[in-house]
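Translate sequence into structure tokens.
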Amino acid sequence: MTYTIEMMIHEERSRVAQLYLDMKHMPEWEKGLESIETTQGTLFETGSQGIMHFTFDKTSIKMNMTIEKACLPELIIQIFEVPGAWNRCVNHFIAIDDQTKWVMEVIFEFSQTMDLPKERFIEKTTESMTMFKRFVEGIRP
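Result follows.
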């Protein structure tokens, strides 16, 4: 399953990229995130790996994260894995005057057929991106 979502953020690209990588504040916009553990390299650099710890309705989930490529503030490619699912997100941050156009190209692969419609995945990705947008636009240096 593949799809692309675009969103404008009313903040300069360098600030958007800085906040995207701010692990201290990530739980404020990444729903259910409790902590991030680095397992290889310096997290958010090319080739680094970590584990994201989430809690949803008292259920704990560990999600492996690999940074395939980091060329910020322009680009970061992340791979997320949980049992049965693989997800690659190519995040482009495009400077447009004093704003940032965020384009996310998403690929999902599943070990079994999923009964959920593609629209549900698009909706959840858009919700997550909107939470980050609101976080960024609500923070002032």
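Note: The helical segments are 13-20, 118-138.
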